[in-house]
UniProtKB/TrEMBL annotation:
GO terms for cellular component: cytosol. The keyword Cytoplasm does not apply. This is NAD(+) diphosphatase. InterPro entries: NAD-cap_RNA_hydrolase_NudC (IPR050241), NADH_PPase-like_N (IPR015375), NudC-like_C (IPR049734), NUDIX_hydrolase-like_dom_sf (IPR015797), NUDIX_hydrolase_CS (IPR020084), NUDIX_hydrolase_dom (IPR000086). GO terms for biological process: NAD+ catabolic process; NADP+ catabolic process. SUPFAM superfamilies: Nudix. Residues 158-283 form the Nudix hydrolase domain. GO terms for molecular function: metal ion binding; NADH pyrophosphatase activity; RNA NAD-cap (NMN-forming) hydrolase activity. It comes from Rhodococcus coprophilus. Its cofactor is Mg(2+); Zn(2+). Belongs to the Nudix hydrolase family. NudC subfamily. Keywords: Hydrolase, Magnesium, Manganese, Metal-binding, NAD. It is an enzyme of class 3 (hydrolase).
Length: 302
């Protein structure tokens, strides 16, 4: 059997394109933020994570339309083309809107960077209105990059939930793919799961693969990472080797079906498109917005 254990992501994950200057030094500089607000750009994000778009690009609004200074609830995203960029939650949008799953693969690097940060930060604020330490109401500070307890002054920072996503292969020409019970038939992806407290990333890979499909893995190797703000995860990509002869067991109820696929089958599926394809093909794979796509493309290229 041909050993193909060394491969990499096919490219930088689309949601990992970090190019905008975050300008952390400005987050607590109220004078600089107020001065920059006059010609700052504002991204409006609704509760479904949708933003205004036109011709495959984000549509920004003048921040000054909201008032002469940064408004409560707005989050500072950084500096782009010498202008401050902010985001704010809105209840409703007008015109064409889209979320990251729909438009993420069409955005340029800066737009993608800004939208991922905006969605992740605003999602955190939606769920962090009360201190996790003392239960009191908290208020945004540091231009949206932390929250302060109104009772004790305890400061809390945006939460990110780490999750591993692992391409399991046999060291040769087969890869193990699975689908959740709620997914349509033929829609498969690589395996993933959240990191538990007190657990290393490598230990999580071993545990999650064993829990989900009953397979033991070895030769665990890191590939790359991608923010996944749905609502606030960080996907950490790995590859690992397993024995196709080992029986598959769906132990935790999260997997409805899992199968070993050949490299030719994966290549054919990648050529068809992604989950959105209407073609009657035996295998549909994740779209380009997911790090899973880059992992599968890298493996398929051999």
């Amino acid at each position: 059997m041909l050993e193909v254990t060394s491969f990499s992501l096919s490219g930088t994950p689309l949601l990992s394109r970090t190019v905008v200057e975050r300008a952390e030094e400005l987050r607590s500089d109220e004078d600089a933020l107020r001065a920059g607000w006059a010609d700052a750009k504002l991204l409006k994000v609704d509760r479904r994570g949708q933003v205004p778009v036109a011709d495959g690009a984000l549509v920004f609004h003048p921040a000054a339309d909201l008032g002469p200074a940064p408004v409560s609830g707005a989050v500072f995203l950084g500096v782009r083309d010498d202008r401050h960029v902010w985001a704010v939650r809105v209840l409703a949008q007008t015109g064409e809107v889209a979320d990251l799953r729909r438009v993420g693969d069409r955005l340029d690097d800066a737009d993608a960077d800004l939208m991922v940060s905006a969605v992740a930060l605003l999602n955190w604020h939606d769920q962090a209105g009360f201190s996790a330490v003392d239960g009191s109401a908290s208020e945004p500070t540091m231009s949206g990059w932390s929250r302060i307890s109104s009772a004790t002054g305890h400061e809390e920072f945006p939460r990110t939930d780490p999750a591993v996503i692992c391409l399991v292969h046999d060291g040769g020409d087969q890869v193990l793919l699975a689908r959740q019970p709620v997914w349509p038939e033929r829609r498969f992806s690589v395996l993933a799961g959240f990191v538990e407290a007190g657990e290393s990333l490598e230990s999580c890979v071993v545990r999650e693969i064993r829990e989900e499909v009953g397979v033991d893995v070895r030769d665990i190797r890191y590939l790359g990472s991608q923010p996944w703000p749905f609502p606030r995860s960080l996907m950490l990509g790995f590859a690992a080797v397993a024995d196709p002869a080992q029986s598959l067991e769906f132990r935790d109820g999260e997997i409805g079906e899992a199968r070993w696929f050949t490299r030719d089958e994966v290549r054919a599926a990648l050529e068809v498109g992604d989950w959105a394809s209407a073609d009657e093909v035996p295998l549909l794979l994740p779209g380009s917005i997911s790090i899973a796509r880059g992992m599968l493309e890298g493996w398929a290229q051999g």
